[in-house]
Structures are given as C-alpha cells and as structure tokens.
Amino acid sequence: MTETRRLDPPQGRFAATVGLPGDKSLSHRALIFSAMAEGQSRISGLGTGADIVSSAKVLGGLGVEFAVDGDAVTVTSGGVTDWTEPAGPLDCGNSGTTMRLMTGALAAQPFAVTLVGDESLSKRPMRRLAAPLGALGAELETTPDGTAPVTMRPVSGLRGATAVLDTGSAQLRSAFELAAIQATGASAISSPPGYRDHTERWLETVGLGERRDDTFVIHPGSVPSASYDLPGDASSAAFLWAAAAISPGSEVTTPNITLNAGRIGFLEVLDRMGAEVDASVDRAILGDPVGTVRVRGNSLRGVAISGALAVASLDELPLLAVVASFADGLTSVRDAAELRAKESDRIASTCDMVRRLGGGAEAADDGFEIVGLGWLDGGVVESCGDHRIAMAAGVAATGARGAVTIDGADAAAVSWPDFYETLEAVWSSR
Ligand code: S3P
Questions:
Q1: Pick among 1.10.287.40, 3.65.10.10, 3.90.226.10, 3.40.50.150: CATH of 24-156+172-182
Q2: What φ, ψ does residue 161 adopt, rounded to 5°?
Q3: Maximal C-alpha separation, the chain
Q4: Which of 196, 260, 387 maximizes ligand 1 atoms within 8 Å of its Cβ, making it the mutation to test the pocket?
Q5: What is the pLDDT of residues 103-142, one digit of tens each?
Q6: In Å, how far are 30, 37, 118, 129, 376 from 114, measured between CA atoms?
Q7: At 32, which helix (H) or strand (E)?
Q8: Catalytic annotation on 214?
C-alpha cells in the first residue's frame, strides 16, 4: 500500500534545533563491522530507517545475534569466519548499501549466499562489483542483466589485489575493502574523489588500512569488537537545511551530525548559492568528524555543480533541484550520471518532480538544469518509490505557493520514518 500525503505551506519564519536519527551510512557500517568482529559490540544512535533493519536481518540470517539494550543494540558474533550458511536467500529490501557492502563481507565464505532485493533494488547495477571482487579471487554471479539476485560463490580464500575504479562509489570501494581485509596479502584501491570515506577512516583507525597519496592500502586482519556512538544523519539533516535555506530569515540547527567531507558537499553548494552556513566539528567517531551545522535562509542564486562536488552531494541532488527552483538563475548539475542508478532514475524522477511543481527542469545524460524562478507553485508529485524524491517534494512545500501532494510518500521510511512529522514541527517552531 502506498500512502498519499498533502503538505500545506507553513506561515511565517521558523527557527528550530533538531536531533536527527542515526546516520544511515555509519549504521550499516557499524552493524557489518560488529558482525565481522569476534565478541560483543555495542551500537548507540543506530539509524531508524527500513534500510538499517535490512542490514540487521541479513546479518541475522548468517547467525549474528542482536539484542536491544536500552537505546543501544548489542551485537554478538563469533566473527566473520564463524558466520553460518543461511537457510535461503537473504533479503536486502530496498538497500543498495546492504547488498553491495555484504558482497564484500561475504566474499571469502566457504558456502554460497544469495542476496535478493525489492523491485527497485533488483534493477540496480551489481555487475560492477564482479571485477574488483574477482581480482581478490571472489566469485560473484548476477542475472544476465547484471542485477540481483547476486550470488557469492564459495571460495577457499582470497588473495591481495589492486583495484582501480572509474566511479567514486563508496559502496564499491567498501565492498572491495571488506573483502580485502580477509585476503592473504595487502590490497590497494583508487577511484575518482568525492566519495564518503567512512570505511577507509574506520579501517585506518583499527590499523587495517592506510592512505598513500590517492591510493588506499588495505592490510588483512580482523575487525575488533567495539562500542559505536553514532551521530545523526547528514543526508537526512540536508532536508531541514534546505527548508531553512529557501526561507529567508528562518534557520535550522542540527547538533551531532556526520561531517565527513564526502557527506556535506551540499553545505558547500548551499553556501555558494548564498545561504548562511556554519559547521563546527565537536568530536570524531573512529576518525570520522561529527559536529553541529546551522543553516539560515537568504536570497539564493543558481550555481554550477560538477566533478568531486557532484559526488560529495550526490544523494542531495534531487533536493538541490528544489532549492535551485527557489533561487534566481540557472543551476546546472554535471558529472552525476550515477543518479540514474539510485533508488529511482534520479535524473528523470527529479526533473519530473520539479515540473509537476511548476518549475523548469531539463534532463542531461549526466545531470540536469533547473531554471530558478524564485518560486514553485505546488502540485502532485510521484515519489517513484524513492525516499529522497518523496522528502525533496516535502521540502518544496516549505516555500511553495500552494499545497504539495506526494503519492508514495511512505517511501521516506527507508531512511527517515518520522520525516514529515519532523518537517512540520520545524515549520511551526519559533
Ligand atoms: C553510500 C554510498 C553512496 C550513497 C548511498 C550510501 C554508502 O553511494 O549514494 O546512499 O553508505 O556507502 P555510492 O556507492 O554511489 O557512493
């Protein structure tokens, strides 16, 4: 069942301080690292979205145990070499991160494991994992179209290898790295920049990796059990930053947020557009910076985004299309062809969303152009089953002239089940 939700634009300025649910990228990694470690790990601040439940269920299917302990989760595992053969295919739901990172974590197992996903995940490209993992000696099988179901074939060991990727994909890099720590010799990986380097920072902190210029070297070894205190999600916070950015005089403050450079490209974009942006680092989790962000709305101008900045703001580009509609002048996004391989074809779904709301959008092979008129009318948007399209449309209601109705609004639950309630609470805060 899909839900339709109507959002009526708020009246007046708002000022809110908001705590965000746990970071999705870090939550997947904390679960997988804990499951690969021997012993007991503890994770507080775990994300609340359906994608995180998918990772936990997949790991549970391999014999890893989870117990809720107050507001933390305790993970008990005999280590990756103690994982047990699952009774059947493991379901990754809508979560590309679960499926891709798990191919790496599973790459050295002596039994076969098949990973399946929902309709959207079953259309996303998985064959791109075969070459880097194959170089290590892993065997990955996809459908003839290169999609899920993905089967990791049994192997008797992995060897060190070098991978050179042509996209700055954190998921691909992480899959390779999680396999490479299980190999017999050192490995190395390089790719274009802009990717979120959470996995690299965590491996570096526990002595399983090191940076050498543009290459990351992975040393074989065991992930230690640990205690993770996860920060709030920058990619979720981005929706509230955007709501403030398009509302002159309004502001949103988000404490305890992931500030990894590969996650906050969108803040740089908002700054270039003319929003007032402050970010300060307070602490680190396994070498990954965490801090407070405040965004205050202003009149905005169009920008041109490409290269590493497009990679570092990739998940926020549908949201940028909304912000750009409220700016003055043209915004162009290039070098973002990866958008076509996300939960929907985000070049098509983003342009469709903007047009349905009365804005101007033109798709390109590797991005899009938005004509910033300074307003959106409102209208009826189709989420295309994509959480980030649903939530970007919700943000559009912040400044639209009329109501925004989202068909398939429940898609937001993949990363942020309480999104609409939080957005409306922000609108009414003073
Ligand atoms: C993610 C990496 C990104 C991002 C995704 C989460 C991760 O994908 O779009 O939402 O946690 O590693 P890429 O593989 O394109 O970097």
A1: 3.65.10.10
A2: -155, 170
A3: 64
A4: 196
A5: 999 999 999 999 999 999 999 999 999 999 999 999 999 9
A6: 22, 22, 14, 14, 45
A7: helix 24-36
A8: no
